[in-house]
Design brief:
By secondary structure, the protein is of the alpha/beta class. It contains 14 helices and 18 strands. It has two domains: about 220 residues, Aldehyde Dehydrogenase, Chain A, domain 1, CATH 3.40.605.10; about 190 residues, Aldehyde Dehydrogenase, Chain A, domain 2. The strands form four sheets. Strands 10-11-12-9-8-14-15 form a seven-stranded mixed sheet, sandwiched between helices. The chain has a six-stranded mixed sheet with strand order 5-4-3-6-7-17, with helices on both faces. A three-stranded antiparallel sheet has the order 1-2-18, with no helix packed on it.
Length: about 450
């Protein structure tokens, strides 16, 4: 019964996982449009059951994340809760997919606007949030009535498969939530198949800007709907009027979550001259006191390993480049004594815009500080990037807060706050940081089509 309700509402055939390189062929070139309204209490109930099962199994799910990615267990537990909340949120949004009635000048006509599911959605997710990046997309897609095919990151497939097991236990019909794990060797081929197969109506991707551009190219031939949450280069601005203690606390939270491996991590710290020295000193002290590198399963660890050696090499490259061009290592600066993929939380001062860490996303535990003089200068530096996902700034001046918040060219702004992600709020960027929004009441629209119906002869 649940299968029929789901497929009747989305008009999409159930899917089976296919081996890499083999296309999933529909009987027609594109799934038929929905037969009825998108809102569905049955889907709402199933998503809620899935949420309940995630909460019941939260400890095991967190252990999987830590084992796969090295993320400290406490952070992994936080991710599981954050991940589950998307299912709860979209279970409620599934009941609130409303259309419109538009009154026209013609007395014998009525205009209706219907919202209908897009069809099959291909979801490609990253390794840094192997659970939350799935539920943020899949929760919205399933709530809208779409079926999904998830290609998880090659480094973290087990989180996606664990979610699939819980989806099955929740009663979500077979063929609705599909997972295609793959190796690094064939990941590119699988991504191309998902983007070009005529069965797929929607691509949702989180990852690097470079990979996003490749996927956009593949999706262009069939003009698929796309959502892209791509790279960032988040500025963290501290003005002279800021509360230094608050700014440092925000900097720690924003920069070193998941060892600096998030797309909204602060990448450039712009600190005004009058407060610069006090901020750098306090920041270094708090880093030494609060950041503890170690095994993610060990109590007290706040900084786990980076995802692989290539990631460590990039951090090393950025530190070496900055130092060679005049930057000063305040603390850290090298691989941690634990070896392998561990790197010391690092703070650099005397950083300039010519250094790699100022215009490339590091994706690691490196905090470079750039000194500036005026508000206009800070905004110019912040907006010089060709990406614009998140930005942060600290100020106690109300007029300045309004000016800067409006002028920063990013999709999300944290004002006197270093942690901004929430299921209730829209997540996404501008410029080359992406297309569309995830989470919030807006997230479900990414998986819906608007259909205008002109009803005449009344």
């Amino acid at each position: 019964m649940a299968t029929c309700l789901w497929l009747r509402s989305c008009g999409a055939p159930r899917l089976r996982s296919a081996p890499p390189g083999r296309r999933l062929r529909p009987r027609a070139s594109r799934p038929a449009p929905a037969a009825g309204p998108a809102a569905c209490p049955e889907r709402s109930s199933l998503l809620r059951k899935w949420y309940d099962l995630m909460i019941q199994n939260k400890d095991d799910l967190a252990k999987i994340i830590t084992a796969e990615s090295g993320k400290p267990l406490k952070e992994a537990q936080g991710e599981v809760l954050y991940s589950a909340l998307f299912l709860e949120w979209f279970s409620e949004e599934a009941r609130r997919i409303y259309g419109d009635i538009i009154y026209t000048p013609a007395k014998d006509k009525r205009a209706l606007v219907l919202k209908q599911p897009l069809g099959v959605a291909a979801v490609i997710t990253p390794w840094n949030f192997p659970s939350a990046m799935i539920t943020r997309k899949v929760g919205a897609a399933l709530a809208a009535g779409c079926t999904v095919v998830v290609k998880p990151a090659e480094d973290t497939p087990f989180s996606a498969l664990a979610l699939a097991e819980l989806a099955n236990q929740a009663g979500i019909p077979p063929g609705i939530y599909n997972v295609i794990p793959c190796s690094r060797k064939n990941a590119r081929e699988v991504g191309e198949v998902l983007c070009t197969d005529p069965l797929v109506s929607k691509i949702s991707f989180t990852g690097s800007t470079a990979t996003g551009k490749v996927l956009l190219h593949h999706a262009a031939n069939s003009v698929k709907r796309v959502s892209m949450e791509l790279g960032g280069l988040a500025p963290f601005i501290v003005f002279d009027s800021a509360n230094v203690d608050q700014a440092v606390a925000g900097a720690l939270a924003s920069k070193f979550r998941n060892s600096g491996q998030t797309c909204v991590c602060s990448n450039r710290f712009l600190v005004q001259r009058g407060i610069h020295d006090a901020f750098v000193k306090k920041f270094a002290e708090e880093m030494k006191k609060n950041l503890h590198v170690g095994n993610g399963f060990e109590e007290g660890t706040t900084q786990g390993p980076l995802i692989n050696e290539k990631a460590v090499e990039k951090v090393e490259k950025h530190v070496s480049d900055a130092v060679s061009k005049g930057a000063t290592v305040v603390t850290g600066g090298k691989r941690h004594q634990l070896g392998k993929n561990f790197f010391e939380p690092t703070l650099l001062s005397n950083v300039t815009q010519e250094m790699l860490c100022s215009h490339e996303e590091t994706f690691g535990p490196l905090a470079p500080v750039i000194k500036f003089n005026t508000e206009e200068e800070a905004i110019a530096i912040a907006n010089a990037a060709d990406v614009g996902l998140a930005g942060y700034f600290y100020s106690q001046d109300p007029a300045q807060i309004w000016r800067v918040a409006e002028q920063l060219e990013v999709g999300m702004v944290g004002v006197n706050e270093g942690l901004i992600s929430s299921v209730e709020c829209p997540f996404g960027g501008v410029k080359q940081s992406g297309l569309g929004r995830e989470g919030s009441k807006y997230g479900i629209d990414e998986y819906l089509e608007l259909k205008y119906v002109c009803y005449g002869g009344l």
